[in-house]
Specification:
about 260 residues; alpha/beta; 7 strands; about 45% helix; SDR_fam; binds nicotinamide-adenine-dinucleotide
Length: about 260
């Protein structure tokens, strides 16, 4: 799928991996729609990116908000690219804590909702819109989706039961969605990042960050958001990669804790 000349919708596009992806796809010639619940930052990023960038405020958990973002995307040209970055951990905890108290069901549900339901919502509504268009190329390709999981979906640490389960569901969704959407020529791939240097780490203690950084075999640092964006761009343009979950992690494998 070509990037230049097509419309890309980036959920969570006002910060971190989504912001870097919006900037990168825009630099490659895409028209970008940044969809994020953070209105202030979203407008600011839109202004910085400039022409061919639009911001839509709202939540991936809302059908109306997501449809509105997709309507904007389709009004701007051929809506072919979804990069679903909105997500994250809404809280942590063990299945039962040291005193035997069970994990908060609310935190677990919220994390599943944000990551799994939010990703699926933007995927299903985007796929419906993309499927209504004519194919873009001689493979019959109509669109491409890049979702965002985490290596915690493979090797979640103690205390990550909610986040790890949510990201594992996105990993599991990838093949099924790619199979479902093969009939309409939409590819679905997922990126599973390790530790990437974004605002998501702002609230984490410096010691945790240093500890994790030291555990990355090579290069010994957090990933740059731009490195995620470059991988997303490759998954968009390489037509033969489908139903793939790609780790980007400097070879780190999370320890149990
Ligand atoms: N940073 C990392 O180390 C890392 C590692 C693995 C996976 N990830 C995943 O990458 C994705 C992006 O993370 P990031 O580090 O860029 O975080 P970030 O906090 O910098 O950006 C996330 C963005 O998503 C937006 N968002 C949150 N909930 C939303 C909602 N309901 N609707 C619309 N927008 C919403 C936020 O406003 C924010 O702008 C997340 O899914 C996260 O789980 C990040």
């Amino acid at each position: 799928m070509l990037i230049a000349g097509n419309v890309a919708l980036i959920t969570g596009g006002a910060s971190g991996l989504g912001e870097a992806t919006a900037r990168h796809l825009h630099a490659q010639g895409a028209t970008v729609v940044i969809f994020d619940r953070d209105e202030d930052r979203g407008h600011e990023i839109m202004r910085q990116v400039g022409e061919r960038a639009t911001f839509v405020g709202g939540s991936v958990l809302s059908e109306d908000d997501t449809n509105q973002a997709i309507e904007v995307a389709t009004s701007l040209g051929a809506y072919r690219i979804l990069v679903a970055c909105a997500g994250g951990a809404t809280g942590g905890g063990r299945t039962i804590d040291r005193n035997g108290a069970p994990h908060s069901l609310e935190v677990f549900s919220d994390t599943i909702n944000l990551n799994v339901v939010g990703t699926f919502n933007s995927l299903r509504l985007s796929a419906a819109a993309m499927s209504a268009q004519e194919p873009a190329n001689d493979d019959g390709e109509r669109g491409v989706v890049v979702a965002t999981a985490s290596i915690a979906g493979f090797e979640g640490q103690i205390g990550q039961i909610a986040y790890g389960s949510a990201k594992a569901a996105i990993i599991g969704m990838t093949l099924i969605a790619a199979r479902d959407l093969s009939a309409v020529g939409i590819r679905v791939n997922t990126i599973a990042p390790g530790t990437m240097g974004t605002r998501a780490w702002d609230k984490a203690p410096a010691s945790l960050r240093e500890n994790l950084e030291a555990k990355v075999p090579f290069p010994k640092r957090f990933g740059h958001p731009e490195e995620f964006a470059e991988l997303a761009a490759h998954l968009i343009t390489n037509r033969y990669i489908n139903a793939q979950v790609v780790r980007i992690d400097g070879a780190i494998r999370f320890d149990p804790k």
